[in-house]
Structures are given as C-alpha cells and as structure tokens.
Amino acid sequence: MAIEVRIPTILRTYTGGERAVEGSGATVTELIDKLEVDHPGIQERLLENGEARRFVNIYVNDEDIRFTGGLDTAVADGDTVVILPAVAGGSASGF
Amino acid sequence: MRFDSLIDSVGGTPLVGLPNLSPTPDVRLWAKLEDQNPTGSIKDRAALSMILRAEQDGRLTPGATILEPTSGNTGISLAMVASQRGYQLICVMPENTSIERTQLLTMWGARIIPSPAAGGSNEAVRVAKGLAAENPDWVMLYQYGNPANADAHYEGTAPEILADLPEVTHFVGGLGTTGTLMGVGRFFREHKPEVRIVAAEPRYGELVYGLRNLDEGFVPELYDATLIDSRFSVGPRDAVRRVRELIEAEGIFAGISTGAILHAALAQAAKCVKAGETADIAFVVADGGWKYLSTGAYEGTLDEAEDKLDGQLWA
To answer: Among the four A4, A84, B177, B187, which has the fewest Cβ within 10 Å?
Structure first.
C-alpha cells in the first residue's frame, strides 16, 4: 500500500491532470522529494525556504503538518496526504 | 434570567455534557451551545463586540452604514445589532450560500450584494474591500482582522467555559475568521496554559478552491498559529455524519460546521483514550441546523448529502 497524495486543481498540470497520485517516504520532506522526481516542478510550488509556502496547507490524515512537526512529520503506507490552498473559512463557525 | 434588551442577552450559553458520544467516563465531551444566542449563532458575540468597539472608537456614528463580507451568520448577527442601534447594513455574500441566509438577512433589514460563487469567501472579501475603497463613508468592521472579534471570546466564551468546567483540558472550535480560537486560545494561554486548543477547518469541494493561485491565498489577519496546538481538516462527509450522530445520540440539532467541529473533538478524544489520559473536551456548537435544511445534509444517504454539499460553502 502506498501513500495517497491528493493534488489541488491548480497543481494538476504537474500530475498530468491526476487528482491523486501515489507517494512514498518516511517524512513529508521525503514524500515531496519523491513527488518532485515523478512530477518535476511541483516541489517549488509547495515549498519555500525549506518550509511549506504560506498559502499552502499540507495535511497528513487530516491534520495540518504545521502542528505535527512540519515537513519532518512522519508518513507511512496507508496514510492520506492532502494539499490545499489556504482559503477564508466557514460561515457558521468562523465566517 | 432577565435582560434589559435582546442584545444584553448575548452570551452566557449553556455547556452540556455528551453522555452518549463521550468515549469513556474519563474522556468526556462538552458542548457549548452557541446556537442559544439571540439570533441563533456564536456570531452574536463577535458582532456585538465589534459594533460596541467601533462606537467607542468613534468610527460608528448614528445612522452610519456598515459593510461586511459574510456568507451568513455574522451578517445575521450584525443585522440584528445594527437594527437595534440605528445603523444600515450591507452584506457582501457568495452567491452559493443557502437561501435561508438571504431570507434571514433581508428580514433583519440588511441589503445584500452577491459575490461570485467561484472563489467563495475569498472573493467576498475582495469585493467588500473594493466597495469600502469606493465608499469611504461606509464602515467595514472586517471580522477577519478586527481584534474585537477575538476579544468577544477572550472576555466571554472562554471564561464561561472555565467557570463551568474548571477541569477543562481541550477546547475545539471552528477555524474561519479564527476569532473564536484566537480569543479562547489567548485566554487559556494566560489563565490555564495546559489547555490544548484544537482547530477544525472545513474542507470544501473543488469549486471553492478552484484555480486559486497558491501565492495569493488568504489567511485572516487575526490568525496567530502559536495560539493553537492542532488543526484538523474536515470534509463534508465526516461533518454530515457527525451532525447526524449528534442529533441521534444526544438530541442536539446543530448546523453542518458543528459536525466538523465534533469530528475533530472525537478525533482528539480518541487520541486521549489511546494515550490513557483523562480529558474534558469542550467544543462549540456554532449554530442550529435550521438554516441548512435546504442543503440536503439532513436527509438521504451520506453519499447523497456529500454530493449535494459539493460546491457549497457548508460551513
């Protein structure tokens, strides 16, 4: 079983239009390194100065990695990684 | 309880236990029933706080027009407070929000300017900022960057929870303007720093994110990541599943965003059980389900509800 990586619409030009691709690695850093090998150019859109870009949110099993160790957050087979642009949130809870 | 007027009754909401959804006697969930505010949502706190602060600062003068980007609850709360204190209200609202919200805003006397569905709340904020620049006499309270929004929770929501539940270990709230989490987070950092602050962030369908440029995203000016400890992204399926569990198991009829908050609270509770910890987890019931009946979230299968919510700003 691999790691499922869900790609936002804006980055699907790098994945041949695929909404989700397979990833591997022991940390998010390794996962993104491998993504770059398979989909050249994507890394630069996600990272800046060794961190996730300000308006890029990365979630491992629905948890924002900024609160779980950043790019050092561990990943394993069977995990789901979701990449999303930051947007203004909810109407009821916050909006 | 007796109050001089409706706006004097904002806040002071009940905190109720969830005997059926709490996983063990040692890991307990508590719901802060913000739907019991005067217009039915947690936003009454922020709206009242922002208007009172603007009056004190002299930004709001009698008869003034208030402008705000809002897809619903904040607008409804502002409309009620504005009508009671003699102001006009104009709301900029994404066109893909539920019909009940438009009806309610109109009923409370607000004028609505629609913004394009694609781009969601970001687009509403952009349109509102443009209108504010063109109409300098309009007052934009701007809930995303107004400290009075967070202060309402620093002064109200958080101390109420601590008074009712001194043993509180976690607070779980929705992440939108971030006002609730920032105010509650700052209060507990100062008064009971061991309380963990957990954010539940709605994850919408693809239409909402659209072709958003990753360099031009939106993070509310109020947001300070040091005030929260973990952040869960919750999709519509989990939100709907939890909102149905909440009414079936505990009899609480809540809006869809509360399902997302409950999902994060239950995830946190499961972690506490696994770690063998004792926990008292307070979470926000942001509003009732009434305004969302037309979304289809409350009937049919989960698959059907998920399909219907795709493309809607459900929280």
So the answer is: A4
What ipTM was reported for this prediction? Answer: 0.83
Output the CA torsion B239→B244→B245→B250 (10° steps). Answer: 120
Residue tagged 């004028």 (tokens): B111
**Are A92 and B286 in contact (CB < 8 Å)?**
yes
Domains B6-36+157-309 and B43-140 share a fold: yes
For residue B56, what are its two tokens?
A: 């004190």
Give the separation between CA B243 and CA B291, rounded to whole angstroms. 14
* Cβ-proximal residues to B25 (8 Å cutoff; 6+ apart), any chain: none
- CATH number of residue A13's parent domain: 3.10.20.30
Number of domains in chain A: 1
* The domain defined by B43-140 carries CATH number 3.40.50.1100: yes
Query: In sequence order, which ranges of B118-178 are alpha helices (DSSP H)?
Result: 120-134, 147-152, 158-164
In a domain, A22, yes or no: yes
- Evaluate whether residue A23 is within a structural domain: yes
Strand residue runs (E) in chain B:
15-17, 27-33, 65-69, 88-94, 111-115, 139-140, 170-174, 196-202, 230-234, 279-285
Q: Is residue A95 domain-resident?
A: no
Contact A94, B179 (CB under 8 A): yes
pLDDT tens readout for residues B39-75: 999 999 999 999 999 999 999 999 999 999 886 889 9
> Is the separation of the CB atoms in A64 and B264 below 8 Å?
no
Statement: B6-36+157-309 belongs to CATH 3.40.50.1100: yes
Nearest CB partner across the interface for A87, out of B70, B74, B208: B208
pTM of the model: 0.91
Strand partners, B282: B30, B171
Q: Most A CBs within 10 Å: which of B76, B125, B214, as the mutation test of the A interface?
A: B214
- Pick the residue from chain B with its C-alpha nearest to A47: B214
